[in-house]
Specification:
mainly alpha, single chain, 5 helices
Length: about 150
């Protein structure tokens, strides 16, 4: 529910949603920007879903956590913390390709995040392991009949 506050003496109008100042205007005749209020409601709901998903993750209810955080991203695809949480959940489930994809999206959205270096190290470690695995499988591939040396007559 939005709250409209009008301070007559200062002729300032403030629009508040869930204890968050949305907009102030000097002209009390200016209409409420419905799109802005709706966008803030959507962002708030996305964060609520993220919090629910985090709780589900901590309870090791991974499938439910994925469903909830996916809902969060449907509402706000640019909410980096949802991508990070998906990365963490997928990593816990050993779905490393999915985890790394979401870690990368997180870093694209929040390159200055406090944990950006740590998350980049996770990505780098994963990619190095994948390169090593590919190299090892190339070296250890079974030889076919065509690879055997031919006998000379």
């Amino acid at each position: 529910m939005a709250l409209l506050v009008v301070l007559a003496a200062g002729v300032v109008t403030a629009f508040v949603y869930k204890d968050t100042l949305i907009k102030t205007v000097a002209d009390p005749n200016e209409a409420v920007d419905d799109e802005m209020l709706e966008a803030e409601k959507t962002r708030t709901r996305a964060r609520e879903l993220w919090a629910e998903a985090n709780t589900l993750y901590e309870a090791k209810q991974f499938s439910d956590a994925i469903a909830r955080v996916t809902e969060s991203l449907e509402l706000d695809p640019r909410f980096g913390k949802s991508h990070r949480l998906l990365g963490v959940v997928y990593a816990e489930m050993k779905r490393n390709d999915d985890a790394v994809r979401h870690y990368k999206q997180y870093l694209e959205l929040e390159p200055q995040a406090k944990d950006a270096k740590e998350v980049q190290e996770i990505i780098d470690d994963y990619e190095a392991a994948e390169r090593k695995k590919a190299l090892d499988s190339a070296i250890e591939r079974p030889k076919s009949d065509n690879d055997k040396p031919r006998k000379r007559r």
